[in-house]
Design brief:
alpha+beta
């Protein structure tokens, strides 16, 4: 499982996908999220602005990523 590190209290889902290298742009993230291809903590998520906190796990196309705070 891949991990991304955040410096703040949370990161938005679209930004997290970019940081993890799963998408190349915010537009691509928006489309994939709206199409229901991303899940957070095992549940489908369609809000690009969903706030992810330390310990949350998001997944897209079999790639799981855990959010870790410094």
């Amino acid at each position: 499982m891949q991990e991304i590190t955040i410096n703040d209290e949370y990161i938005k889902l679209g930004q997290a996908l970019k940081l993890a290298g799963l998408v190349g742009s915010g537009v691509e993230a928006k489309i994939l999220i709206q199409d229901g291809l991303v899940s957070v903590n095992g549940e489908q998520e369609v809000r690009r602005g969903r706030k992810l906190h330390s310990g949350d796990i998001f997944e897209m196309e079999g790639n799981e990523v855990k959010v870790v705070a410094l």
